[in-house]
Amino acid sequence: MMLRIRSRDGLERITIDNPNITISQLQTIIQTQLHIPIQNQTLSTNQNLLLSKTHNDLNRFTDMSNPNTPLSTLNLTHGSIIFLIYDGERRVIGPATAFSPAGSFGRKMTMDDLIAKQMRVSRQEAPHCESVSFDRDCADAFQRYVNETLAFAVKRGGFMYGRVSEDGRVEVDFIYEPPQQGLEENLVIFRDHEEEKVVEAIALGLGMRKVGFIFTQTVSQDKKDFTMSNREVIQAVEFHAESGLKEWVTAVVKLEVNEEMGGAADVHFEAFQMSDVCVKLFKEGWFETEIKEEDDPKLSKMKKDVVVGVKDTKEVDNDFFLVVVKILDHQGPLSSTFPIENRNTQVTMRALKNHLDRTKSLPFVKRISDFHLLLVLARFLDLAADVPALTECVQTQTAIPEGYQILIESMADAA
Question: Boundaries of each MPN domain copy (predicted)?
Answer without folding.
Answer: 131-278
